[in-house]
Amino acid sequence: MAGVTPGIAEKLRQFYRAVQDEAIPDRFLSLLEKLDQAEKNADQTTRVKDSA
């Protein structure tokens, strides 16, 4: 990478690896599950309306 010192690039890699290793908070997982369920419900409602 032109103009980027190797030290900065390595520190960014280390930071990225540390973030990847962090667990996803339960609150966030719960929100994702609710969003998935809402999407499924919306899809089912759309299919019922389309077939009527």
According to DSSP, the number of beta strands is 0
Q: What distance separates the N and C termini?
A: 58 Å
Q: How does the helix and strand content classify structurally?
A: mainly alpha
What is the alpha-carbon Rg in Å?
Answer: 21 Å
Share of β-strand residues: under 5%
Organism: Ciceribacter selenitireducens ATCC BAA-1503
InterPro entries: NepR
Protein name: Anti-sigma factor NepR domain-containing protein
Give your account of this protein's structure.
- It contains 2 helices and no strands.
- The chain starts with 5 loop residues before the first helix and ends with a helix.
- It has helices at residues 6-21, 26-51.
- With 52 residues, the chain is an all-alpha fold.
- It has a domain at 25-52.
- The model has no long low-confidence stretch (mean pLDDT 87).
- Helices cover 81% and strands 0% of the residues.
- The longest helix is centred in the C-terminal third of the chain and has 26 residues, at 26-51.
- Residues 7-39 form the Anti-sigma factor NepR domain.
